[in-house]
Amino acid sequence: MEPTYKQLEQELAETKTALSETKIELEKTKDLLRKALERILVLEERLKLNSKNSSKPPSTDQKSNTSSKSSKKRKFRVGKFRKLYPAERIDHQVKCDRKNCAYCGSNSVKLLDIPPEIFQQVELPEVRAIVTVYLLQKYCCHSCGKQSIADLPKGVIDSAFGPKLTSLFAYLTGTLHVAKREAIQLVKDIYDVDIGLGSAPNIEKRVSNALDPVYQRIYHAIINGKFCKHFDETGWRNSGKKRFVWLASCKIATFFAIHPSLLC
What we know:
This protein is an alpha+beta fold. It has helices spanning 5-48, 163-175, 180-191, 199-223; strands spanning 138-140, 147-149, 230-238, 241-249, 254-259. The strands form two sheets. Strands 3-4-5 form a three-stranded antiparallel β-sheet. It has a two-stranded antiparallel sheet with strand order 1-2.
């Protein structure tokens, strides 16, 4: 039985609907394919990047495996020997003898009339911090009735830590950028000296104040000097507030300054 006109019309409508849905799916597939191709191009470009054509370090370069036959033999290099310390730097000298042969164990060994082989070993000395007690005598004035105590000797700073220990701690935290807790632990381990965490910034401030005259001389030498000057600044956070680190340099010196504004 041949299909009627209505049946043909219904099949045509269904075909049109299916064709429209297929067209939509095709467009989606084409869009996904286009994005995938773009992604592949980006990844291929990344694979081509190395330390020579980008900022990547040489350690990230992918090198192909080479066979042992094709590898080049390295040239022989003469080793460098550690330079011996001069006689005036020697603190101890130990003479080493042998009573038996190192190979057969025989005690029939003879000392050769040639200079001995020299082996030098450097070791750190055992150190302890020097603790000095200052007895500050107390006095009473018969005229005004007020009490006072004796002054510290000239050159002795009013601090629980001496100038050398203070300088060492400031060098660790300021120059070597060692964290305060680690610097405290280092001083404790080596010198058996306890430094409180709250004392760390006080030590740094004391050293900073002591170096201020030198800093001022460097500042004036650069600003008032006749050398070519270079200036630069960058943002900085100090105690949660925005600051600016200024740098000024010339041929003979460089100094830094933290300032709250752009005009230093």
